[in-house]
């Protein structure tokens, strides 16, 4: 655990979130993700209000902090787990096996057997061999088939690696039934950070065509897992969680009716805005006297939690204690001895002109996919620490 010390005298009265106030009031000896569990609870309630009768299965991979899981268990959330470790975490915080789905389509046979042994009954698959493993090690289990979908508008697409082609889905459902499994439905993912609820429409149409084909082939389905994609606010405006989720559910029910079981797997949309990273400037420089932009190097980079800056896909916002100063563009990079550790260069970041080494920076909306992407110790830099308030 990070050794941090409160220093309320250093606070500069910046109007900001509870997390940012904590960051600017506290000394950290290394980059630290600060999560507000109250903000997670608010986001869960907001998504639940919009999703209505759908069951929320929080995507644990987004942020597996014990306190987050504990909070969500208390609120009645279910969980989407990608590994044995995530299942163990959820069970340890009081989740029932019936509230956990093993949603990774790529699972070790021994982990399937272990999950079945502790009472997990719902599994994802997208290939014949995966179905055969499940049938052998979790006989009679309920399974849903994940589909590849097109027309993705997501900032962070999640297609190709996961899912089967839509022309293959019905044969996989038939194979599951032959193996003695219970093929209950389909799943898909529109892609992480899909900012417009309207972007779901063509994807839902694709899924509905497969659903109808399965039923025409004699396989009545009862479960639709709509995955994640619920957006967080980074830089571009997004709908609030309740109206966004309500619009998605209206589109789902217009196509699939109101009788089937609906699962949703928010991850980023649940926790991203609840967290910010406490970072520090380690160097401000120019490469030449004629250089148009400064380079600002932080003590955190791609390998220590900010992997989603790959391709500048996720655009984080930054807060400093120099917001009263004039700002100018800069290239932002991490501290490691790796030339790929550049965060933003194509679209420079506007930061105060007086920024210098030692200044604290709060990186906003970092509650999702930062601590889990942090390396064990690339270049000897410590992994991202986590504090939950």
Structural class comes to alpha/beta
Helical content, roughly? 25-40%
**Strand residue percentage:** 15-25%
Computed Rg: 22 Å
What's the rounded overall pLDDT mean? 92
Quick summary of this structure?
By secondary structure, this protein is α/β, with parallel strands linked by helices.
Folded structure, characterized:
The structure is a single chain. This protein has 389 residues and is an alpha/beta fold. It is built from ten helices and 18 strands. It has helices spanning 18-24, 37-51, 66-75, 84-92, 109-117, 128-137, 169-178, 200-216, 241-256, 268-271, and strands at residues 5-6, 26-27, 32-35, 55-59, 78-81, 100-102, 122-125, 142-146, 182-187, 223-225, 261-264, 275-285, 294-298, 318-320, 327-333, 342-352, 360-363, 385-388. Strands 3, 12, 13, 14, 15, 16, 17 and 18 form an eight-stranded mixed sheet that branches. The chain has an eight-stranded parallel sheet with strand order 6-5-4-11-10-9-8-7. The chain has a two-stranded antiparallel sheet with strand order 1-2. A hairpin with an 8-residue loop joins strand 15 (327-333) and strand 16 (342-352). The protein is elongated, with a radius of gyration of 22 Å. The two termini are 14 Å apart. Mean pLDDT is 92; it is low at 1-15.
């Amino acid at each position: 655990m990070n050794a941090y010390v409160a220093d309320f005298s250093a606070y500069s009265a910046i109007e900001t979130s509870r997390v940012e106030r904590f960051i600017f009031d506290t000394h950290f000896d290394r980059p630290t993700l600060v999560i507000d569990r109250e903000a997670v609870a608010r986001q869960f309630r907001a998504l639940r209000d919009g999703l209505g009768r759908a069951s929320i299965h929080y995507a644990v991979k987004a942020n597996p902090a014990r306190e987050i899981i504990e909070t969500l268990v208390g609120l009645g959330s279910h969980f989407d787990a990608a590994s044995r470790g995530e299942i163990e975490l959820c069970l340890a915080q009081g989740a029932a096996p019936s509230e956990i789905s093993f949603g990774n389509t790529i699972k070790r046979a021994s982990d399937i057997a272990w999950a079945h042994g502790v009472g997990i009954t719902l599994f994802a698959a997208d290939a014949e061999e995966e179905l055969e493993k499940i049938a052998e090690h979790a006989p009679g289990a309920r399974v849903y088939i994940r589909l590849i979908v097109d027309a993705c508008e997501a900032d962070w697409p999640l297609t190709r690696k996961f899912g089967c082609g839509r022309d293959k889905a019905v044969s996989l459902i038939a194979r599951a039934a032959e193996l003695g499994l219970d093929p209950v439905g389909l799943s898909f993912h529109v892609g992480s950070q899909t900012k417009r609820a309207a972007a779901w429409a063509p994807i839902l149409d694709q899924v509905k065509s497969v659903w109808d084909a399965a039923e025409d082939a004699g396989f009545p389905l009862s479960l639709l897992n709509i995955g994640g994609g619920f957006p967080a606010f980074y830089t571009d405006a997004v709908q609030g969680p309740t109206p966004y989720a309500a619009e998605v559910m209206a589109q789902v029910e217009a196509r699939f009716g109101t009788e089937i079981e609906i699962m949703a797997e928010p991850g980023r949309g649940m926790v991203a805005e609840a967290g910010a990273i406490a970072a520090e400037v380690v160097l401000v420089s120019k490469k030449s006297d004629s250089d148009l932009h400064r380079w600002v190097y932080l003590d955190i980079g791609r390998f220590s939690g900010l992997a989603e800056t790959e391709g500048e896909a996720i655009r984080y916002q930054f807060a400093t204690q120099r917001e009263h100063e004039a700002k100018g563009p800069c290239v932002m990079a991490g501290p490691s001895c790796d030339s790929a550790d550049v965060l933003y260069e194509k679209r420079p970041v506007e930061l105060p002109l007086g920024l210098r080494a030692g200044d604290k920076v709060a990186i906003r909306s970092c509650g999702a996919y930062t601590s889990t992407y942090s390396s064990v110790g690339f270049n000897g830099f410590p992994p991202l620490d986590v504090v939950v308030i």
